[in-house]
Amino acid sequence: MDLKSPISTVVPSLDGPVLLVLAQAEEGLSGRQIHKLAGAGSVAGVRLVLQRLAATGLVHVDDLGNSLLYRLNRKHLVAPIVEQLANLRGMLIDRLAAEIGGWRIPAVHASVYGAIARGDGDPDSDVDLLLIRPDQHEFEDVLWDDQVGRLMQSVVDLTGNAAHVFELRQAELTGHLAGQDPILNDWMQPSIQLTGVPLATLMAELEVVRLS
Description:
Radius of gyration: 22 Å
Helix content: 40-55%
Protein name: Polymerase nucleotidyl transferase domain-containing protein
InterPro entries: NT_sf
Strand content: 15-25%
Oligomer: single chain
Structural class: alpha+beta
Number of helices: 10
Number of strands: 6
Organism: Kribbella sp. HUAS MG21
Distance between the termini: 46 Å
Strand order of the largest sheet: 5-4-3-6
């Protein structure tokens, strides 16, 4: 899946970015505005797409005299499908959060970072996940590893992309904090929390313990 434009998985043409913009817009937009937000094609190409979509009834066109404003016809039979395709990244986040939230050994913290959190990347980008496990479950390594293995397979099944999982214990996170490891910035900016304690909160708590 293209992590920057997941809708392109199903709509690989210029129609994909245009439909994504329309699905996310609450008001009518001009062709130039849609072109700028879509970040693809040319103004003329975007207008051709809009004209074609308007002919199907999926897009409404409001003539304001000096300009035309385009908006998604949310009553169209296809509109709910377009809206669902426009929210594929959100659906992925929800599915991952639900799976990790049901683990027998709960994660202290779980989040996605990297391309999926930034909203960039391409079809070859990994889905980066940070997992922090509790220190007290050292004797249950097999169960934890099974959970992580199933999660990685779920990412492949849901997206076609590989999962890159960075997992560590709370004690190991303390070591990264003590050494001011640059990877902390990768985990924090930006990231999307899935389950558990927010990373900033957890880091602050561990730092207090480390310095006490």
